[in-house]
Predict the 3D structure of the following.
Amino acid sequence: MNTYDSLGRMPYFILLTFTLVVASAANSSGQTTSPADNKDEIDRVLQIYRANSNNKSFLSDDTQYQRYLVYTRTERPLMAKAEQQRIDKQAEAGTGSGSTTSAVSKGSVPWLFSFAVEHGALTQSVDNNTITLRGNVANLLKAINAKDYVESYRKYQDNNAVNLISRASFSVSFVGNQNGSSTNNTQSSLAGYSAHIDLYNHRDPRDRKYIADWAEVVRQGLTQLATSVGELHDLLDAHHHEALQGWQNRSNATLTPLTTTSSDDEVRAAIKKIADDYVTTFGQLEDIRVALDRVAKAIADYSEQKAKVIDKIENSPIFSVEYTNTRQSVTTSLPQSTGSSLTTTSALPDLSNINVIAGLRFIGRSQVTFNAGTTFFTSLPKSSSSGSVRDWRLSGQIDIPLPEIPQIGKSTLTFSGLFLSLLEEPLGQKVLVNGVAESRTGNIGLFQAKFSLPIKGTGLRIPISLTTSNRTELIKEKDTRGSIGITLDLDSIFAKSGAGQ
Amino acid sequence: MPSYTAPASSLVTMKVRVDKRPYLAAFQTPPHNSKWENIKPDADGMGESRDFKMPSTPGDTVSFNAQFDEKIGPNDPDPKATYTINFFVSGAQIGTDQVVVPKGMGPVSREYIFTAS
């Protein structure tokens, strides 16, 4: 290893160390990094009011404002809420089907289907964009049968047979041209298909496996919270009845002008006025300090207990198997291997890929995923002297959730590595490393750092990656390149349209 | 806050269901001016049933706080949990309530008051 190599790799190790420390720190507190403040609490009550059909009884309930008082009176770090975000879902094409910016396949798939368009390849590529539709047969059938996407998700949660089938999913990839439109020949636009089955996946919080864990959280932390909140209410009612009655009268007067057509700003202003009145009326009472501290502690304890169960769910390992078929024979626009003896009049051999996937928790809240797979030719011409097994590959990936960026969302930093043993020259679809074709057989290694930036509320994520590899065909030394793409999770879009049903 | 009336000395049964797991509802223990009896969680982990006794003097009240929360799966197309709360006396319904907890907005606090009639 020369000096350039040592210096070139150092930033990766620094970055990896830093991010693991960040992930560990976030986990050690049992909380995420978005401390609620009073404005958040006003917005939270607003969302509850809206979700409950503008029911004013949710705004006139004095216990609704105890958290607001707690945030005013207690230390904020104690109040950090537990929210987790699962990072094991993949909306990009699997590694075996043409272009992708991911080095490994993940063990879980979007619930109904997702749609990914990427530009820029890592290990394989076609000249055009690849559009992947990934779905779940059982859930599609359920959705059609239930005639309601939302209802189907709820209705079948306890059907064991359907849940077993639901572990199997599929994807179909199409080739679109650079401006995003499909080719005129719809037959030739099919680039491949894949099947995926989760042999072991218990990362759904609805899973019956966790009933006892959730029940324990209810029995301890949530019951203690309800008891603390209720006792504070009882204390106010017993010792400050007139003040409580006065506050309720003023609150009702504030709420009277509100109608179902009132804007969020109008409702927010009313909630803030009521909440501030609650703090002014009761915040200085010394005899409620102990009860208020109990509420604060109960909020923190419950949040911590809930976070532990969520951690357990996210710690649950995933084991999956995936098969991918790449139809080179109908995608004649694919680039030809430079070493191939095939002419353009010969059909290119189709490719099959089998991939075994394992995913589990790593350090802190990070997730690690391993892949082991092989790609082989399924339709070699008689004139070809090539062997049927094209390559073997091993890969690993670490996903590290980063602290939430206000107004943007939660981003993820990913480090991945790939070892690829290319046994035969690629016939047809090239094996690309950083966009450069690898036609020589031999071993290939690469390492990638990827920052996935979400666009809040849109379902869009922008992955930005930096990759280094041990060799390229065109440059006889180390090479580092970047790649950028856009991924769209259609489940988010369906969720928005279906939420109101 | 929801308020109901129930006959003095009657046994009020509260049945709670959520439309999707996990069931994250809890109640002040003991309720003010009464106590919980016959607490029975539903086998499917999506609800429970419990009783409390009303005071013998008309006009007296029983109150308790309830907390409703959610943990919505990341792929749930309906990102909220809906709790349905029904109250019965001798099998006859005397009141009902519904609490919707949007994803990330829980726990929702609710104070229930029962006046003996």
Observations:
- Chain A has a mean pLDDT of 70.
- Chain A touches chain B through 61 residues (CB under 8 Å).
- The CA atoms of residues 359 and 369 of chain A lie 4 Å apart.
- Chain A has two domains: 49-81+209-310, 113-203+316-499.
